[in-house]
Design a protein that fits this description.
four-stranded mixed sheet; 427 residues; 13 helices; globular; Adenylosuccinate Synthetase, Chain A, domain 3; 2 domains; Adenylosuccinate Synthetase, subunit A, domain 2; alpha/beta
Length: 427
Amino acid sequence: MSAVVLIGAQWGDEGKGKITDYLAQEADLVVRYQGGNNAGHTVVVEKRTFKLHLIPSGILYPGTQCIIGNGVVIDPGVLVKELEQLRQQGVSSHNLRISDCAHLVMPYHQKLDEMQETQRGAYKIGTTKRGVGPAYADKAARTGIRMADLLNREIFAELLARNLEEKNHLLAQVYGAEGFVFEEVLERYLSYGEKLRSLVTDTSLAINQAIKEGKRVLFEGAQGTLLDLDHGTYPYVTSSYPTAGGACIGAGVGPTKISSVLGVAKAYVTRVGEGPFPTELTGPEGEHLRQRGYEFGTTTGRPRRCGWQDMVILRYAVRVSGLDGLILTKLDVLDEMDTLRICTGYRYRNSMINEFPHSLHVLAQCEPVYEEMPGWRQDISEAREYGELPVKARDYISRIEELAGVPVKLVAVGPGRHQTVIKDPIF
């Protein structure tokens, strides 16, 4: 049995799409278990770039079954468009299945997301305004609409009418915004449902059967540990559970079925949106990382904030998700740096902090304590074996392993599939 959960070990954008695509060549199933189209994964294959938002990164392998699990919230219009874009790029969706229990992102969710973020003013949290948060809120409030509902015109119409009555009143009375016309939303969404009907099924059943048969299953998380609704830098978080525990709930499998949990981390750290970031670099070094690493959001295009590697964060990710290994990405971005820094702890007032604080007030006042290491000052993008990496690059990796307490399994030295160095096989 080999069921592997792959999570982001920082603030998201760690390169999980590339790693999922790389591992998918050996996987029988790839399962996306949470988030919505507020996430984006970029995969580069032979100089062709694929930008995925809802569809698992394994879609590029015809023999790999891809599943959008029940924990994902789906904007069906975005999904239909994404499928069409892949078709135009020569990629078939015959191997994709969608959970009948996955909730829908509706037009009023997007509108409310935008209105709420605008109203926050200086206290905005940096939402992508894709309607994901309000969709999860309705799910928790038991007023959500699921994929199975969309496939039944009568049921969908009843639920939509009930929700629009409430949401249109809320938009008008609280935000002074125009509401939605029932017939327009009904027909548009029913058309999406017909285009997706053949892909909708009980995905939990399929996943559990695959594990029972000894197939290789890869669970793909979106966002990252510090964006987790419970364990992240609340309130600057997403609305779901990117940590490993979310895979069980979002895919419909028990924890005893999971055999390994891996965390993807950049060789440095990035963050999109608001909130404290102890190792952030705001000068030339940060801009160098941004430009060399092309640190701009796949979904929004927003420039990412960049900083040095933070081991307080990685130790935290190891703890809350039970990581038994790390995958280090974008090591090549550090090729031109003379000196590298690794944050080993925080200084808060007159004391040292070695564990990640949950209080944002404390985190905002933390100063990173650094170790310095020499850079390798050479191009590593052509390395294919671990021994081909410069000694100083291997020293950097070894120090990360020591401080994290878990081994590094893979190292990415560029965006392409082939630019991956195997230190310890996953499957």
